[in-house]
Design the sequence.
């Protein structure tokens, strides 16, 4: 598990050491406590730790420091590491400094000096809990984005494959009608509606409805009763159907299987008028 660090920044060595010791007593087993005596050193340390794979969970900085004040430092670090939480230590109520950092959304809390050790540790622990929660949320969001990306990629592949299958399906010379186990129409191709001279918009619902439409177009309405036989699952059986206009259609079906389980039937209809006439 990667270590996580807390950086303390103060130009007064005694105060810096005291702050570091208090944090090490309570949190040293779980977190690396790093000390920096200037803003420049803190920036270097933060970049070095992050580059080495050690996340900086929290920075606690004094406000009044030479060359770069605490609020300037925390705003600068926030621009590069917004996930790192920041606590400002101030010896007096410097409203302008606190306002600057608040406006930059770079401040978690500010603590007045001299601080109470118990209050300090409680505030730091609360900050670390929030950091861990937000880090976990960011991790889950990253995983979710990756999964969504894979899902979109898979969806595009499936969509492409489905369009290809539909193109093949529609370009078949045979009329095809697919029904599920309940006898409801799942899909059909344009050739089916053309062979039977049925408006495609009417090919829907249950097979009994379609069978009723078909029965009006054959010389012997009872010859299409096999379409309604749900118990017949033996493929390869052919039926010849003579239509009122003299067209002869050959019909057969195949069970539709999904993982070796029968989930429906695929009916095929072929115009064999010329073949039957020549025979």
Sequence:
């Amino acid at each position: 598990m990667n270590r996580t660090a807390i950086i303390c920044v103060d130009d007064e060595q005694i105060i810096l050491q005291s702050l570091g010791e208090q944090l090490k007593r309570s949190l040293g087993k779980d977190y690396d406590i790093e000390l920096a005596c200037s803003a420049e050193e803190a920036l270097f340390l933060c970049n070095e730790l992050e580059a080495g794979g050690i996340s900086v969970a929290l920075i606690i900085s004094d406000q009044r420091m030479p060359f770069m004040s605490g609020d300037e430092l925390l705003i600068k670090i926030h621009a590069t590491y917004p996930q790192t939480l920041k606590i400002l230590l101030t010896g007096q109520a410097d409203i302008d400094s606190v306002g600057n950092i608040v406006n930059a959304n770079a401040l978690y809390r500010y603590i007045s000096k001299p601080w109470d050790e118990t209050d300090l540790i409680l505030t730091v622990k609360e900050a670390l809990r929030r950091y861990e929660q937000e880090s976990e949320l960011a991790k889950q969001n990253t995983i979710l984005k990756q999964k969504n990306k894979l899902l979109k990629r898979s969806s595009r592949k499936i969509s492409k494959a489905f369009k290809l299958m539909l193109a093949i399906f529609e370009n078949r010379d045979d009329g095809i009608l697919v029904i599920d186990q309940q006898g409801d129409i799942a899909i059909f191709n344009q050739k089916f509606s053309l062979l039977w001279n049925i408006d495609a918009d009417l090919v829907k619902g249950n097979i009994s409805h379609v069978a009723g439409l078909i029965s009006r177009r054959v010389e012997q309405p009872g010859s299409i009763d096999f379409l309604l036989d749900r118990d017949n699952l033996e493929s390869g059986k052919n039926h010849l159907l003579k239509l009122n206009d003299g067209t002869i259609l050959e019909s057969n079906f195949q069970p539709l299987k999904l993982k070796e389980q029968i989930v429906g039937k695929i009916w095929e209809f072929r115009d064999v008028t010329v073949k039957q006439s020549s025979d």
The chain has a mean pLDDT of 86.
